[in-house]
């Protein structure tokens, strides 16, 4: 929604945001339906402001880092609240996510080691069958 009007410089259409972030308009509408972003309406047209764009950045970053929509929603609910509450919630959720990922990494390393052992045993049996 580019225009000579300085006020509209901070306005984005759903197509603008979809293009900028490489996501579908359907994804943006989904986040809207979940209450994560709240565009204004001009008739039937959604108009997103800088705040919606910033929230969308946080949503996409949260999803990329593996946070649930519930976690993202909780964080965004504090977006305009006390900064210390927001930081505390973020630190708590990051710690939980790190713990989960570290456990998954340990599990993967164990699985990889077991698979290598099985592969080596299988190759030994092919090379020197009993």
UniProtKB/TrEMBL annotation:
Entry keywords, A to Z: Coiled coil, DNA-binding, Transcription, Transcription regulation
Positions of the HTH merR-type domain: 11-78
Coiled-coil stretches: 84-125
Keyword Amino-acid biosynthesis found: no
Record keyword Transcription regulation present: yes
GO molecular function: DNA binding; DNA-binding transcription factor activity
One Pfam family of this chain: MerR
PANTHER family hit by this protein: HTH-TYPE TRANSCRIPTIONAL REGULATOR YFMP, REDOX-CYCLING DRUG-SENSING TRANSCRIPTIONAL ACTIVATOR SOXR
Name of the protein this chain belongs to: DNA-binding transcriptional regulator, MerR family
Organism field: Devosia crocina
Taxonomic lineage: Bacteria, Pseudomonadati, Pseudomonadota, Alphaproteobacteria, Hyphomicrobiales
